[in-house]
UniProtKB/TrEMBL annotation, chain A:
<dbReference type="GO" id="GO:0016887">
    <property type="term" value="F:ATP hydrolysis activity"/>
</dbReference>
<protein>
    <submittedName>
        <fullName>ABC transporter ATP-binding protein</fullName>
    </submittedName>
</protein>
<dbReference type="GO" id="GO:0005524">
    <property type="term" value="F:ATP binding"/>
</dbReference>
<keyword id="KW-0813">Transport</keyword>
<keyword id="KW-0067">ATP-binding</keyword>
<keyword id="KW-0029">Amino-acid transport</keyword>
<dbReference type="InterPro" id="IPR003439">
    <property type="entry name" value="ABC_transporter-like_ATP-bd"/>
</dbReference>
UniProtKB/TrEMBL annotation, chain B:
<feature type="transmembrane region" description="Helical">
    <location>
        <begin position="161"/>
        <end position="181"/>
    </location>
</feature>
<feature type="transmembrane region" description="Helical">
    <location>
        <begin position="35"/>
        <end position="53"/>
    </location>
</feature>
<keyword id="KW-0472">Membrane</keyword>
<dbReference type="Pfam" id="PF02653">
    <property type="entry name" value="BPD_transp_2"/>
</dbReference>
<dbReference type="GO" id="GO:0005886">
    <property type="term" value="C:plasma membrane"/>
</dbReference>
<dbReference type="InterPro" id="IPR043428">
    <property type="entry name" value="LivM-like"/>
</dbReference>
<protein>
    <submittedName>
        <fullName>Branched-chain amino acid ABC transporter permease</fullName>
    </submittedName>
</protein>
TrEMBL record, chain C:
<dbReference type="Pfam" id="PF13458">
    <property type="entry name" value="Peripla_BP_6"/>
</dbReference>
<feature type="domain" description="Leucine-binding protein">
    <location>
        <begin position="58"/>
        <end position="416"/>
    </location>
</feature>
<dbReference type="InterPro" id="IPR028081">
    <property type="entry name" value="Leu-bd"/>
</dbReference>
<protein>
    <submittedName>
        <fullName>Amino acid-binding protein</fullName>
    </submittedName>
</protein>
<feature type="region of interest" description="Disordered">
    <location>
        <begin position="34"/>
        <end position="55"/>
    </location>
</feature>
<keyword id="KW-0732">Signal</keyword>
<dbReference type="InterPro" id="IPR028082">
    <property type="entry name" value="Peripla_BP_I"/>
</dbReference>
Amino acid sequence: MSLLELEDVSASYGYAPVLHGISFGLEANRAEGILGANGAGKTTTLRAISGMVPATGRIRFDGVDILGKSPDRIARMGIAHVPEGRGTLGGLSVRDNLRIGAYQRKDRKQIDEHIEFCLDLFPNLRERISSNASALSGGEQQMLAVARAFMAQPRVILLDEASLGLAPSTAQRVYDAIRRLQTETGVAMVVVEQNASLAFSVVDHALVLETGRVSIEGPKESLMGMDEVRRAYLGG
Amino acid sequence: MKNLLARPIVRLLLAVVIAVVIIVAPISSSSFINYQLSLIAVFAVALLGLNIVMGYTGQVSLGQSAFLGLGAYIAAYGVRQEWPVVVIFLLCCIIPAAVGLLVALAAARLRGLALAMVTIALPIIGVPLAKRFPDFTGGSVGSTVSWLEAPEGSGLADDQFRYYLVVAIAVVLFILGRNLVRGRIGRAFAIVKSNEAVALSMGISPYRYKVLAFTIASLFGGASGFLYIAVVQYTSPETLSFATSINLVAAMVIGGSASILGTVLGAIYFVMLPVVAGQIDSSRTALISGAALLLVLFLLPGGLVSLPRRIAQLVRGGRGGSPRSRAAADRPPTGDTAPRTTAAPEAEKQPR
Amino acid sequence: MKNSLKPNKRVVGTIAVLGVLALTVTGCTRTATDGGAGAGTGADETAAPSPGITDTTLSLGISSPLSGPTAGPGSCSVAGLDSYLEAQNAAGGFEFGDGKTREVTLTYLDDTYDPAKTVSNFKQLVGDGIFAYVGALGTPTNAAIMPIANSEEVPQVLLVTGATAFSEDQKANPWTFGLLPTYYDEANTFGKLLADAGKPITVAVLSQNDDFGKDYVAGLTDAIEGSDVTIVDSATYEPTDTTLDSQVTQLAASKADVLMSAVSVTPLQVGVLTKAQSIGWLPRIFLPSNTSTPGTILEPGGATAYPAVYSTSLTKVPASPTFAEDEDVKAYNAAFAEYGSKIAAVYTPHCAWSYAEGAILGEAFKGMEEPTRDSFMTALKSIKDFQAPLLLDGITVDTTRDDQPAISGLTLVQASGPGYAPAKAY
């Protein structure tokens, strides 16, 4: 049984349907990519999982139905959503942001260890540990958002367009760190990304969305070999 | 200056001095001064509630006077019915909190202006409602009580006795309030205030915490109503009028939003400004108060609580970073990081 | 470097000094100001003077709304009184029953109609040593201090309010009573005019939805009992309403001959007058005295459209040409221009009322044989058939009744030209 399982999930904003029956499964310790153009329904898929848009169908997490549960409840169950646009707490320092990530936890010692782990993972953050989050660069903010999600010790991280608005080299550094996070901790991830080559640096399996439907899915190698994927999402 | 204040010995000494002043002040002061000091304690509690919902949680509430008035009416009614003081006090907390909870369950789904509008409605409905039930409220003439006389043999005058009672309750409520905003719940409030989407992704329900903040604010409002009756011994629809709410909001901002010390400063401002303005020119109090309000907001956008920092900033001139980063470093809500940030520059100073 | 002390010692020292200073400052005040309760010593043969009075001076205090929505009437309640007192001081002072002449000063504070501030102001005034608290405007504000005034035995007298609560039981509250006729009295006067007409008249009533409104309706109902006058419809309003159009429309459907518009909020009263005529309803109008001023109500409301507009009055209207040559009015206008105008910018009847109140105080001083509050109260409560300045003919002061304010007569007036003239029969 998959850790996270979507079955025939549909969602709409008002009268405009966005998702038409998406299904996929995410195994524990794995990372699944969701590729697709703007408006294909990638972000909506993540929002449906984390309970932020109403959806139909079936979403199970660890064998429990989570469709219809409130977003905070789903978060407490162990699904951490790193939204598009990062959503760091600008008025607080990097350290406070990380601490707040661990809000639901009570194991103080481990929290400090995990903060250290995050700072090792993202050395840029260590340099700016006392800075305001709002004073960080875009790349640093993205790192902080990912690290903060990790601080909640989730079982799944939903990562939405982590490369958005970043210079290619910065985006690559962010994804390198995310890959290390995934491989070293084994946390499962759903990685939504327009830039397939960045996504493939983390995921080994992916699906491609087109106007709210899964058009292709498969392991990284086979997808990379497909012409249409290469043309559309790998820039050549 | 701030570094020195951070030293435990200085803090302890300061606390002792303040405690001694608070305890000794009423013994030698006139009944008028004791009344002012007691009123400051009354409105500090109302402001603390308001600060919890507005300052710490970021939800506009223009209805705090309604809970103040409700608490005062309950207390006045309880006194007339000769209920025990403890029962009255508890009811003054519980009933306004319950009303606040009911309102918040409906209103906390709203944001910004819509929420402000709902909270405005409370005093606006409250005033005619209070006039409509004269058996409970005393109608427009209001409700006079005579209670909490100093016990025989205590050697205290009534005003001194009431001062001690009111200040003691206020201090306890302030300790509770401080622990609340410095603790886990306070952190959740800060997250909800800062970014609701982030709160959700942290597993914090903004709705639930807004309801909680509003309920706590109502509880403090009701408790301050009890204290109000203890000091003023009278209540009328004027107590819960909308103007009082607006003045409370102004006082909270003037004192310092999301700050315990700022809450006390706000209460001092709220009570003393009309008195001082009256000393200057009784027929120009509104003008003087308005000018003072603008002046403070202009010179100290962070409220009176930022005065020491502001002075330090002016003295030091340019060196020492942008005001913005310093303001943020001073912000306390996330527990033990604050001492650490203040400890660092202090360590640098030692070798000098 | 200049200072040899280490920083932390310096701060500790500063705090300690500050603390000691704070204690010394507060240490000086208690005994100096708390002598206020010494008034009860009147039983002695040689009565010790009460606070606030010397051989040459006497100080009075008042707390009224001087800012906020009630600032107009509130300021006037101070300005008229201050005008009278200062004019009399300038003319040599007040003569007292003990043969001395004293200058009488008035300390006034703003309470913005907030009872908690009134209590604060009252304590401040008493702490500063006023002799008596006089002429304050406002029902809740005066109600808040009534118990304190009576327990501390400080006179709280000649209050500018129409509520019955301050005068109805002067045995229970011997240190408190009002100046003005009550709302009940006013409506009762209207009712009598209608009943005396001796013919069937229909009345529509618009009143405030609280105990004042009930007082008002009760005064009318009691007066018309047994006559041919009937109340055909009634409506109420809240002072917080922004418009009374729907109430007026409802009442207009009754086509009543008379509209008693007991509305105490100026803009709303203007709205009633404009709305009724705009929908073609032109009854005779009865207005309460505090919302009947020609300049602020009648003119903007277009009152000339109605067959008759009645109100009650106690005093001559200083601005009215009818009284331009009146000696009282001339004296008032001169005094107000010199003293009162810096306190109140706009005239309301409260200016004239409180001016007359000054004269009543003067009359009480004349009868005051000892410099005590007891003696003052005795003298003040023994005034009968006194013709205070500005009061209309036939209205006199009688303070000897235990359940009535100082003034209880009222004169019916009728709008005519730019002001009011004595009313003709209905």
